[in-house]
Design goal:
It is built from 7 helices and no strands. The protein is an all-alpha fold. It comes from Saccharibacillus alkalitolerans. It is found in: Membrane. Keywords: Membrane, Transmembrane, Transmembrane helix.
């Protein structure tokens, strides 16, 4: 006798965007403080890069994959591995892995990586236009950050270093806002903190 198959239970998981934005916020605030000369050294920055910039965003990426959210999964994953790499680069620069490796680095290699991330972020900025305006402006600032980092790595004038630093500080501040909005809006079940509707250019607004 055939028995009807039980109805599958749909597992609901929380939106990981808030923790991903929180990780991005903290690491960019710390890193920009060093670029702007407000703090010194990269020792503490490396640990925040690993645990907040990298692991928090990697967790958000994995959770977004479970939501079938290709955009969020790719964005958080790509930037998570960026911060893993940056933390490793800083440790190399400080001689953690030995003086031979520290003396063999070529900053222009970072320039090529930054340029690749700039192109990637430009594509993601287009996608962010159809999410919300807070996320769109975060991506715009990330574009400016990678533009400044790319030129700075290839030896451009100091202006580009400062451009990257201020853009990075802006990313941190706006990401904190986005994190808080994400949490409170989900908690209260309505738009408690405004984030701005999608532009509705490439697909209809929900």
């Amino acid at each position: 006798m055939n028995h009807p198959s039980p109805t599958p239970v749909k597992v609901v998981t929380a939106d990981p965007g808030a923790i991903g934005l929180f990780g991005l916020a903290i690491v960019t605030l710390v890193a920009s403080s060093q670029k702007l000369g407000l703090t010194e050294g990269l020792g503490y920055a490396a640990s925040w890069a690993v645990f907040l910039g990298a692991f928090a965003q990697l967790f958000a990426s994995i959770q977004d994959a479970k939501h079938n959210n290709t955009f969020g999964m790719t964005a958080f994953g790509a930037y998570a591995f960026f911060w893993f790499a940056m933390a490793t680069n800083w440790l190399m620069k400080m001689g953690t892995f030995g003086p031979e490796l520290a003396s063999a680095v070529d900053g222009k290699q970072l320039g090529f990586a930054f340029a690749g991330y700039l192109v990637f972020t430009l594509f993601m900025t287009i996608g962010a236009m159809e999410t919300n305006k807070v996320l769109f402006f975060i991506f715009c600032l990330i574009d400016v950050l990678f533009l400044g980092l790319t030129f700075d790595a290839f030896g451009a004038p100091e202006f580009f270093h400062e451009l990257a630093a201020y853009a990075e500080m802006g990313i941190g501040i706006l990401s904190l806002y986005g994190c808080g909005a994400n949490v409170l809006n989900a908690h209260f079940g309505r738009e408690f903190v405004p984030i701005g509707r999608a532009f509705g250019i490439f697909k209809p607004r929900p």
